[in-house]
Amino acid sequence: MDERRTVRVSKYLSKHLRHQPERIGLTLDANGWVEIDTLIAAAAAHGFVFSRAELEHVVAHNDKKRFAVDGRRIRASQGHTVQVDLDLPPATPPPYLYHGTVARNLDAIRTHGLSAMARHDVHLSADRETATRVGARRGRPVILSVDAGAMHRDGHVFKVSANGVWLTASVPPQYLRFPG
Fold first, then answer.
1. Which class is 97-177 in CATH?
2. Which residues pair with 70 in a beta bridge?
3. What is the pTM of this model?
C-alpha cells in the first residue's frame, strides 16, 4: 500500500470514527467502537472502497496509532467530537506534559488556559518532540510545558489513551509554563 493511499484511508477513518460517523450511516457504540465489517460496508456504500488488509495496514502503520482494534471492532483512540466514553481509567501523569500550539493562540491561552474546544479533552504529549509535531500542523510550533504533577495533586483527572496521548478536561493557566 503506497503512502498516499495510507494517508487517504487514515483520514477517511479519522473523519468517520471521530467526527461524522452518521455521514456514512455508522452508529458508534457508547465507547466509540464499530464492527470493522460494518465500517467497510458503509464506506463502500458511500463510494470509498478499502479492504480489510488496507485497514489493518493503516492501523499498524499509523505513526500516531490513531486507531485501536479489539477483535472485530475498531475505534479512534481519542480526538472525538461526537459523544463517546472511551472508558479510560484515571492515570497518574508524569511531572510534566507538553502541548504544541502556535504563537497566535498564546494570548488566549495565557488568559484562559487550554480547553478541549470541540473535542472531549485537552490532548497532551509525554515528550517535546511529539508536541512539536502536533504544533507544527498549524504553523511554527510553540511548546508549552504543563505542570501535570501539580494539577494531579490539586485534583485534576488525567487519562492516557491507547496510543499514549494524555487527556484532561482543561489546563488552567497557572499550570502552564510558556517559553522565553
1. alpha beta
2. 73
3. 0.79
- Residue 153 CB neighbour total at 10 angstroms: 9
Domain with CATH 1.10.10.970 in the chain: 3-76
Which residues, 6+ apart, have CB-to-CB distance to 22 below 8 Å?
none
DSSP 8-state secondary structure symbol assigned to residue 15: I
Reported as half-sphere exposure (CB side, CA atoms, 13 A), residue 130 has a value of 16
pLDDT in tens, 29-79: 999 999 999 999 999 999 999 999 999 999 999 877 889 999 999 999 888
Answer positive or negative: Cα dihedral of 53, 56, 61, 63.
positive
Strand ranges of the sheet holding 97-102, from the earlier edge strand across to the other edge: 97-102, 141-146, 176-177
CB neighbours of residue 80 within 10 Å: 21
